[in-house]
Write a structure and sequence with these properties.
Blueprint (H helix, E strand, L loop, with lengths): L7 H7 L4 H27 L3 H17 L3 H15 L4 H27 L3
Helix pairs in contact: 2-3, 2-5, 3-4, 4-5
C-alpha cells in the first residue's frame, strides 16, 4: 500500500519496531481520528472556536508523530478562516477536506495495524 498521509517507518521507529506497539498505536489512532473528524465537523460548522481548539489540541501531537502534517495545516487554516468569519460554504469545504484526509488516515492506520512489519 502507498501511504498518502502517515509515515509507517516513522511510526515503527518511534515504537522501537515492535509490532505489538505499532498495532496498539494504530488502533488508538483510528479512535482519535474518528473522534477528531466528528468534532472538527461539528465545531467548525457551529462556529465554536473553543471546542474546535480543544479538538485540535488533542489531535495535533498524534498527527505530528505519524507525519500527518496535512491535518495540522488544515486545522490551522480552519481556525484562521473561522476567526475571519468565513462564509458557511467555505467552512463546509474545509470540513469536506478534513473528512477526506481523516478517512484516508483511518484507512492507512487500519492497514498498518494489519501489516505492522
Amino acid at each position: 500500500m502507498d501511504y498518502t498521509y502517515i509515515e509507517p517507518d516513522k511510526i515503527s521507529e518511534m515504537l522501537f519496531d515492535e509490532s505489538e506497539y505499532v498495532i496498539e498505536f494504530c488502533e488508538a489512532g483510528v479512535l482519535s481520528f474518528t473522534e477528531f473528524k466528528d468534532n472538527f465537523h461539528n465545531h467548525l460548522l457551529d462556529r465554536n472556536m473553543k471546542q474546535l481548539r480543544e479538538a485540535g489540541h488533542k489531535i495535533k501531537p498524534g498527527a505530528k508523530m505519524m507525519g500527518a502534517d496535512e491535518v495540522v495545516d488544515n486545522y490551522e487554516k480552519a481556525k484562521v478562516r473561522l476567526e475571519e468569519d468565513a462564509p458557511d460554504e467555505e467552512l463546509k469545504e474545509l470540513v469536506d477536506t478534513m473528512d477526506s484526509i481523516c478517512a484516508t488516515i483511518i484507512d492507512e492506520l487500519e492497514h498498518l495495524a494489519q501489516n505492522p512489519e
